[in-house]
Amino acid sequence: MNFELYILVFGMSLFLTLLFVPIVGSFAIKFNAMDNPSGRKIHRKDIPLWGGVAIFIGIFGTVFIMKNVNSAFNALLTGNSGHIMRLLEGILVGSIVIMVLGMVDDVKGVAPTTKLLGQIITAMIVMQYGIKIKGLNIPFFSSYMEIPLYLVMIITVLWITGFINSVNLIDGIDGLASGVMAIATGIFFVITLYQINIQTEPMTVDRLKLASVISLAVCGSCIGFLKYNFPPAKIFLGDSGSLLLGFMAGVITITGILKTAGALTLFIPILIFGVPIFDAFISLVRRVFTRKPFMEADRDHIHHRLLYRRGWNVRKVIFRIYYVTLILGLLAVLITLL
Fold it and tell me: How far apart, in whole angstroms, are the C-alpha atoms of residue 163 and residue 129?
């Protein structure tokens, strides 16, 4: 692995997303995958959805190209008896399933319980490819704790679906979810680079290398998408995009950081993706106390409160949340270096 690969990954994912967003937007209009103005929406005209499809192409188009043009990346995928390739296949299959679920929801609407079931099925699919949480380094305890087999599935499903819904919930205003994910995955990439250099177990290093490439591809794709999604947005992520990005956050953290040694390993991804995770947690608590359905949409998320109760404009809201995401990410880097 070398920095030439990383430069190519970032540049290619950025380019492919920029190239395909207008094409995907045209298809969204053709198939009526549109976000229409309503009481909860701040836009005043129909906006195409399916932005996640362009991000998907940016990520996996880049991975496919790199496999065929970069010898170091190809060696990573084909070595270790194909273990890393199988992890990549699992991420690809899971991404397709969750993206298609989101695409259908963008056009026809999917019942909240059906959507949650689809997320659970997606998490169970990737587990069959080896993407699972088998153990954790618990803070303030030096030893690695193996998770009993009967809990592996439960914890992995909760982790992945938790990330999926966290990102889905913050996708409420132009440029917010895509910008937050660009910053978070960029920070995650930096931390994986550091971990690659200090880890000694070969399989852990290879998993980190895969996570570093995918996280950088996600970062590049999100930045490319922001050209069209930054307010005033010309296209939205839609559920195809927010579910996909949440899924990617969940699987790269399992593939990468959660497999490393360190007392605060569990807290690193939670800090990096702290804004959507905190918003989802507060939303869950709020709905418990108000006895509202967990999957019911409302206007009480962080961005809504800043927008409607503080009276900030959209750009001010997203930049403040970008700053918080960056600060939390830098804190995660600092903790990693200590």
Answer: 19
- Cβ atoms of residues 87 and 59 within 8 Å: no
Pairwise CA distance, residues 260 & 204, whole Å: 7
**SS3 of 32, please?**
coil
Instruction: Output the pTM of the full model.
Output: 0.93
The structural domains of the chain, with segments of one domain joined by +, span 3-337
Q: What is the pLDDT of residues 116-137, one digit of tens each?
A: 999 999 999 999 999 999 877 6
Question: Closest Cα partner for 192 from 256, 259, 254?
Answer: 256
Extended beta strands in the chain, E state: 34-35, 47-48, 135-137, 144-146
3-state helix vs strand vs coil in the chain, percent to 5: 75, 5, 25
pLDDT, tens digit, 9 for 90 and up, residues 298-333? 666 787 678 767 778 889 999 999 999 999 999 999
Q: How far apart are CA 137 and CA 118, in angstroms?
A: 30
Report the Cα 49 to chain-centroid distance in Å.
18
Tokens, residue 105: 């929801």
